[in-house]
Structures are given as structure tokens and as C-alpha cells.
């Protein structure tokens, strides 16, 4: 039986990865800052991290934060994994980290490089944005009487459970390097996603597209975060909304 450690194993993605690996008969340890018996802050490392990794064959690294520290966390994890004799490190990244000059994306790309140069067997999967995150952003934007959107922006949301399926599959296999990107089934205008969200939540708002400036906006507008050639996800945004909010799947897409 393979022993697998999932970092960020109580989070949106990590929790689902843990469930799938346990269902497959693996011994799975969950590492997060507040989850016993492996409550570890990866930014600090320490003996607790060494204890969590003792006897582990594979690590699935899902832990991340936009508040900073991901590179330090990855460096601590890699050093401890080497000491423990881990043979496979699986990392979840984001489509476009090498094309979109957003600070968080640059950090994810830097962690990818650490993983690749770790000396461990490694696998990196890049995925597009989860449905959950898109809804979170749209919910914030819809708090105002007018929903202001970046003009000409598109997205390709993917179901987090499908990404968890893929990560669990990769964790069960041999190190594969950088695998094919994983994108949602549709590339959509951000306006069409916003209108679908408004219908599903029963809100009436005007939607206004606002042109923006800057390198990051130009990269998003150019589709640097999209992977239309790898639209392997199955669940659409409307199907996700219908389950979450109880709405219908109708409505024009754009």
C-alpha cells in the first residue's frame, strides 16, 4: 500500500484528492496548519514536517496562499521530502503562469521550477480556474448595483472535482514531468459567465464592460490563461450553478 501525503488536504481541492486516494485504498496523510496529527505550517518547516513525511512515498502538493510564502513552503517541503526518501512529488499549478505577469502566477511558476530542480521524481499539472473561484469573484462584483467587468476578458472554468480525479490518478502513477494542461469544457466571455451567475442567483444588475490597461490585463485579454486545445473538463458552468444555487441551465452563452 502506498503512503501519500496531501498538503493543503483540508482545502477545496486537497480534500477531494484525499477522498479519492483513500477510496483507492491508499494510506493518506493530510497536512495543513490546523489539522492534527500533521498540523504543520510549511513556511516554518521543522520537526513536524519530518514526522509527517516519514515513510511517505508520494506527496501531492496542493497547499497555497496568495498572501505570500509559497516558495519558502515549497523549499521546506522539498528539503524534507529528500530527507525522507520521497520518490514522487505531484504539484498543481495554473494554466498561464508562464504567460501572465500576475504576482501570484509568477510565484506558482517559481514553485514549478523548484519542483523540477528538486532531484525528486516529479509531476506538474496546470489547470484553469475552478468554477468555485469564478463564482466567488462574480459574487463580490455583484454586490454593487452595476457589475463592472474587464472588457474582452474570457475564462475557461473547470470543475474542481475533475481536477481532483486527475491529480489522484497522477499520484497513483509514476513521475511524469509536465503533463498536459487541464481546461474546462468551454472558453467563455466573462460577461456571459457574469450573466449566468446573475440568473442563477436571482439578481438583477446592469453589466458594464470596462477597458483596462497594463501588461497583466493585456495577457488575460490575449488568452494567456486559457488552454482551448485541452478543453477536457466535462461539467459546464451552468451545470455547476444549477447544483449550487438550484437554478436552471438555460441562457445564451457568449
Automatic annotation (TrEMBL):
<protein>
    <submittedName>
        <fullName>SDR family oxidoreductase</fullName>
    </submittedName>
</protein>
<dbReference type="Pfam" id="PF13460">
    <property type="entry name" value="NAD_binding_10"/>
</dbReference>
<dbReference type="InterPro" id="IPR016040">
    <property type="entry name" value="NAD(P)-bd_dom"/>
</dbReference>
<dbReference type="InterPro" id="IPR036291">
    <property type="entry name" value="NAD(P)-bd_dom_sf"/>
</dbReference>
<feature type="domain" description="NAD(P)-binding">
    <location>
        <begin position="8"/>
        <end position="132"/>
    </location>
</feature>
<dbReference type="InterPro" id="IPR051604">
    <property type="entry name" value="Ergot_Alk_Oxidoreductase"/>
</dbReference>
Amino acid at each position: 500500500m502506498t503512503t501519500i501525503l496531501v498538503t493543503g488536504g483540508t482545502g477545496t481541492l486537497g480534500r477531494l484528492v484525499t477522498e479519492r486516494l483513500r477510496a483507492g485504498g491508499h494510506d493518506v496523510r493530510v497536512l495543513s496548519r490546523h489539522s492534527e496529527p500533521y498540523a504543520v505550517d510549511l513556511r516554518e518547516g521543522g520537526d513536524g514536517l519530518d514526522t509527517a513525511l516519514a515513510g511517505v512515498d508520494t506527496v501531492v502538493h496542493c497547499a497555497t496562499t496568495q498572501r505570500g510564502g509559497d516558495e519558502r513552503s515549497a523549499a521546506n517541503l522539498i528539503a524534507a521530502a529528500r530527507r525522507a526518501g520521497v520518490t514522487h512529488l505531484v504539484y498543481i499549478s495554473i494554466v498561464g503562469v508562464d504567460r501572465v505577469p500576475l504576482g501570484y502566477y509568477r510565484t506558482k511558476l517559481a514553485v514549478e521550477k523548484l519542483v523540477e530542480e528538486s532531484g525528486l521524481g516529479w509531476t506538474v499539472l496546470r489547470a484553469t480556474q475552478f468554477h468555485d473561484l469564478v463564482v466567488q469573484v462574480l459574487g463580490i462584483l455583484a454586490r454593487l448595483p452595476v457589475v463592472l467587468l474587464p472588457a474582452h476578458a474570457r475564462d475557461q472554468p473547470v470543475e474542481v472535482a475533475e481536477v481532483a480525479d486527475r491529480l489522484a490518478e497522477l499520484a497513483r502513477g509514476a513521475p511524469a514531468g509536465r503533463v498536459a494542461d487541464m481546461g474546462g469544457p468551454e472558453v467563455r466571455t466573462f460577461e456571459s459567465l457574469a450573466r449566468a451567475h446573475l440568473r442563477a442567483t436571482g439578481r438583477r444588475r446592469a453589466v458594464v464592460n470596462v477597458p483596462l490597461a497594463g501588461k497583466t490585463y493585456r495577457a488575460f485579454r490575449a488568452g494567456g490563461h486559457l488552454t482551448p486545445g485541452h478543453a477536457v473538463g466535462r461539467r459546464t458552468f451552468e451545470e455547476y450553478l444549477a447544483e449550487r444555487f438550484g437554478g436552471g441551465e438555460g441562457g445564451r452563452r457568449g
